[in-house]
Design brief:
CATH class: Alpha Beta
Distance between the termini: 34 Å
Number of helices: 9
Oligomer: single chain
Shape: globular
Helix content: 25-40%
CATH superfamily: Metal-dependent hydrolases
Structural class: alpha/beta
Largest sheet: 7 strands, mixed
Number of domains: 1
Length: 372
């Protein structure tokens, strides 16, 4: 069996080793080395590949297009170090969602060369509150278990965002959780009490924490208060536009397994201009993506930049790496991803001392790296 060997500062589940990692046939074969402080040498960093559970688009393409869009998006994000992701849908009429899921389901079954592995779907809509659409189009609806099951027959639903305060949604949360699907609270007008009840019924996290949900007030703690007080997991967008660095630090102290997502749109990896997000036109300018009225509409973030942003606001590299990889893998129950250990998928990134990508491997395949 042919093996490739990488040397440098390797982040393992037990800490940093300075040594060599060998991989072949898509998995990590061996890791050998001695415990080391990576600041004591000038060698590269070898980290688990990034895992992004909230990806709408990239490279000018949108998941809701159908066709080969998912493949193009997965290639763009692999070039920025994302080795696996969840294809994320928008609130839309049911035929639009079905078309997107059919295409995503095909991409889940067959990863193309140079692409991140698509693990399944994050169904962000339509089971959200019309009072907190954010950049979602106005097609929100109440959910039914039968409808969700029919959608799940088209592509594997791994994560569903739900507004728990809507009629019948608490029962749905319980049914989905019992079926092994992760349910997140998001795009909600619900109260602190609604959030607590959702967690008691099996909800496991919160979609883009702080965004599209009632904020924290000391006499009305809101949905953000429920997350900060009780959640083990939540996703957050660390582009430093959606959430202030101080609020990110609050969440880091309160939520043990906070993990990062990009909420990236078709504008990721593209020049300024107009792009599609589901049925809506969004405009990329000055590093952000907005609707015509100025509402933030997803991001242009990639996970390599997310890592650098976390380090810039004060996280050490090992902690930052967990926030862009391991925690998301644990959340989905992906025990062979998000960590560098023998027998795990050879999903890894190599970064220089400035945290710029030098190499990306998806299940052992060397992928192209985005130019600076």
């Amino acid at each position: 069996m042919n093996h490739a060997t990488l040397t440098g500062n390797i982040l393992t589940p037990d800490g940093w080793l300075h040594g060599a990692l060998r991989h072949g046939a898509g998995t990590i074969a061996t890791i050998e080395g001695a415990p080391a402080d990576p600041s004591a040498n000038g060698d590269d960093y070898i980290l688990p590949g990034f895992i992004d559970l909230h990806v709408h688009g990239g490279a000018g393409r949108d998941m809701m297009e159908g066709g080969d869009a998912a493949h193009a998006i997965a290639r763009l994000h692999a070039r920025h170090g994302t080795t696996s992701l969840l294809a994320t849908t928008m609130t839309a009429p049911l035929p639009d969602i079905e078309r997107a899921l059919d295409a995503i389901g095909s991409a889940v079954r067959a990863r193309g060369r140079g692409e991140a592995r698509i693990l399944g779907v994050h169904l962000e809509g339509p089971y959200i509150n019309s009072g907190k659409l954010g950049a979602q189009p106005p097609f929100a609806r109440e959910a039914s278990l039968g409808e969700v099951e029919r959608l799940g027959a088209r592509a594997p639903l791994r994560l569903i965002t739900v507004a728990p305060e809507l009629e019948g949604h608490l029962a749905l949360v319980r049914a989905l959780a019992d079926a092994g699907i992760r349910v997140q609270v998001g795009h909600t007008t619900g109260s602190y009490e609604d959030g607590v009840r959702a967690l008691e019924h099996g909800a496991a996290g919160f979609t883009h924490l702080f965004n599209a949900m009632p904020g924290l007030h000391h006499r009305d703690p809101g949905m953000v208060g429920a997350a900060l007080a009780h959640a083990e997991y939540a996703e957050i967008i660390p582009d430093l536009l959606h959430v202030h660095p101080g609020a990110i630090k609050v969440a880091l102290r309160a939520i043990p397994h906070l993990y990062c997502v990009t909420d990236s749109t078709a504008a990721a990896g593209m020049p300024d201009g107009d792009y599609m997000l589901g049925r809506q036109v969004v405009h990329k300018c000055m590093g952000g993506v907005r609707l015509a009225d100025g509402t933030l509409a997803g991001s242009t973030l990639t996970m390599d930049q997310a890592l650098r942003n976390l380090v810039a606001i004060g996280l050490d590299l090992a902690d930052a790496a967990r926030r862009v990889s391991t925690n998301a893998a644990d959340y989905l129950g992906e025990t062979r991803r998000g960590r560098l250990a023998p027998g795990c998928h050879a999903d890894l990134v190599v970064l220089d001392r400035d945290l710029q990508l030098k190499a990306v491997y998806v299940e052992g395949e060397a992928c192209a790296v985005a130019a600076d």
